[in-house]
Amino acid sequence: MTTFNRRDLMKLTGTAMLAALAAPKAIGAMASEPAKAKPVGDPLQYIDPELRPAAEQVLKFTADMPPLSMEGLPKLRAGGAAFAAPHLPEIPVEERTIPVGKGMPDVKIFIVNAKAGAKRPGILHMHGGGYIAGAAKWEIRYVQEVARDLDCIVVSVEYRLAPETTYVGSVEDNYAGLRWMYDHAAELGLDPDRIAVMGESAGGGHAARLAITARDRGEVPLVLQALIYPMLDDRTGSTIHPPAHIATVGWDGQANKFGWQSFLGQEPGVKGVPAAGVPARVEDLSGLAPAFVAVGGVDLFVQEDIAYATRLLEARVPTELLVVPGAFHGFDRVAPETYPARLFTTSKLNALRRAFGETLPAA
After folding, report:
1. 362 burial type by CB count under 10 A (0-12 exposed, 13-18 middle, 19+ buried)
2. Is 64 a catalytic residue?
3. Which of 191, 305, 329, 332 is catalytic?
4. Where do the domains of the chain lie, and which CATH numbers do they carry?
5. Are the beta carbons of 253 and 31 closer than 8 angstroms?
6. CA dist 166 to 45, 159, 297, Å?
7. Which terminal Cβ of the chain has fewer Cβ within 10 Å, N or C?
């Protein structure tokens, strides 16, 4: 059986950190009414047996955490720094600040594994954190590993968080990072015809939104949108409630409602929510970059992610969908040596390799 200890818990950066710290508590000040309660028996009953030790430790770790609320956000954000893994010294990282646009503050980006004179593929990465927390600087080790494994460049954007900034600002931050990456391809040793966007959880939602923006503006071609358990639909946890066995570990419906209300600047799940902030509400998905969508079978986002992948297929967008049975939100980051996590990560990296036109490693 795979063991799980405090060292593994330290891997709860970005997506997984917030999933653990935010749930399963009640929401706090922003919700006008509580999300629908779901009866839960044994929260581990539908978790893959190999993932149960990790899931159990996450539940123990979060048992005494305070509720997710506006008042608690500063502490939640500050606490994430303790979970950042040390950088890989052999993979270079450069920090820059780039302009976003008229009337908007500049945004910080991290350039990982650039090599002038080369012509390698690249990924524009957006971190997770429910739209309200997380930081690109805490995810550097993770993106270094991706850059190393794929021999590619990664640019990670320190986009502005909600509720201080709604989707209007963070979408522009991420697009500025993508456009800068494309325009500086020669300097970075980047092939401008082999750029993908990728993110986890809220970062996956941002990646989906960025793929839509790139299509609509027609300035930067993309070869793939890698959506890793993406946060796509504001109605989940607001007007749509998953079955009781879903989201028993990690990010849940109440936390999701809080994140979306912060991100949108209005009540989620109701009529009139702007599609500009919610990928699942965008009516026309045709012409988007090919997609890789991956999610755990008991992740809060499993239904919305399957639905989005289905709509992409119906819109004639080449789409690969991976659903890992019994896997909870962020499982691959908490228990990376388990079989479900290795399957998940290998599938993700191979989807990127195929999009980049690279040869897949021998099995």
Report:
1. exposed
2. no
3. 329
4. 81-355 (3.40.50.1820)
5. no
6. 37, 11, 30
7. C
Provide the pLDDT for residue 18: 52
**pLDDT reported for residue 230:** 98
Is 206 noted as a catalytic residue in this protein? no
Task: Using the predicted structure, report yes or no on whether residue 105 has a pLDDT greater than 80.
Answer: yes
**299 carries an active-site annotation:** yes
Contacts of 55 (CB under 8 A, 6+ apart): 43, 44, 47, 249, 328, 331
What pLDDT is recorded for position 220? 98
Taking residue 217's Cβ as centre, other Cβ atoms within 10 Å add up to 11
Q: What is the pLDDT of residues 253-308, one digit of tens each?
A: 999 999 999 999 999 999 999 999 999 999 999 999 999 999 999 999 999 999 99
What's the one-letter identity of residue 360?
L
Residue type at position 208: A
**Which one of the listed residues 48, 170, 191, 201 is annotated catalytic?**
201
Length of the chain: 363
Q: What is the mean pLDDT of residues 227-236?
A: 98
